[in-house]
Design goal:
By secondary structure, this protein is α+β, with helices and mostly antiparallel strands. It is 26% helix and 41% strand. The chain is built from three helices and ten strands, in the order E-E-E-E-E-E-E-E-E-E-H-H-H.
């Protein structure tokens, strides 16, 4: 179900978990987040520095605050990291990104679009994992074509810094995250 189909959203400032899974239903990343609100680009979530991101075999506190955009199309999640984070933008290509109860959830489809701050540039990452998993999991051919085209289009938009992949859009949401996370840490 596309994100815009969910009739009721949590109140901005509500803490929740965002749960990723793999195509076969296996667990993947779980991120501690706060719901920030929505704009013309979609719904926004944030993670303050130190909040947890876990998956089988990994558990860490995020080093810098970040905000994640979930567009109404439900086919990707774009994370924008505050400076000096190594990645300015990290986009997870997704499938079945939707609300399940009071939590967002989706299938991580392996392909990622990344934009680094350290001079390595912008590229589509994890093509090797994509190639391996599309065979192992049996991704349908029409989904493979759709998501490969999506990744190429997102890479172009990030390179052009086209909104919402510009710095100004993310900065507004990073400021909102700072206001909410300060209240959350103080026990509000």
């Amino acid at each position: 179900m596309p994100l815009q189909s969910r009739p009721v959203r949590p109140a901005p400032g509500t803490r929740l978990l965002f749960r990723w899974r793999k195509w076969d239903g296996g667990p993947h990343w779980v991120h501690e987040c706060v719901y920030l609100g929505a704009d013309e680009w979609g719904e926004w979530f944030g993670q303050a520095g130190g909040w947890r991101s876990t998956r089988p075999g990994r558990d860490f506190g995020v080093e810098v605050p970040n905000v994640t955009l979930l567009p109404p199309t439900g086919d990707y999640a774009a994370t924008f990291n505050a400076a000096p984070g190594a990645y300015r933008v990290y986009i997870d290509i997704a499938w079945d990104l939707r609300w399940e109860g009071d939590e967002p959830t989706g299938i991580d489809m392996d392909l990622d679009v990344v934009d680094t701050r350290d001079g390595r540039g912008i590229w589509i990452d994890d093509r090797d994992e994509w190639d391996e998993h599309r065979v192992a999991y049996g991704y349908p051919a029409h989904i493979v074509e759709q998501l490969e085209a999506l990744a190429v289009g997102l890479e172009r938009r990030v390179t052009a810094r086209e909104a919402p992949f510009d710095d100004a859009t993310a900065q507004r949401w990073l400021e909102r995250l700072a206001a909410f996370s300060g209240r959350t840490e103080a026990g509000a």
